[in-house]
Amino acid sequence: MAQQEQLVNKVDRDPKLNGDEKETTITMCGQDKHFTIFSAKPTVIKSLLKHDHFELIRARVISKTETQRVTDRKELYETSGDIVGIKGKMPVGVLTVKSKPRANNNQSSIVNSETIDSSVFE
Fold it and tell me: Is residue 112 part of a domain?
C-alpha cells in the first residue's frame, strides 16, 4: 500500500494540456476479457494506480528535462518526474454501467477500488 501511495504522489497535471484535453477513454472489442483504459486526468490516474486489477501498459512521465514512456510498473517507481498520463488494462468484470447515477457527477468517481473476488475473472 505504501508503494501505491508513492506512485500516487508522483501524479500531476500535464502542463501541455488544457482541461478539455485531459481525456479518459475505455476501449474493448468483441470477445475481449479485458478492456483498455487511458487517462490524462490526475484524479482518474491516481484511482487506477491504486486499483488491485489495473495492469500498466504504459505511463507518460515528464520531468524538467525530458518526457519518458514507462512500460513497467517497477520501473515507474524508479523513474523521476511527474506521471501525467497512463494506459492499462483491467478485467471486463470490474466495469459496470449502472441503471441509476452516482451521487456525484465527478469523473474521479468512475474508478472504485472496493475489493473484488478474483475468481470471477477465471
Answer: no
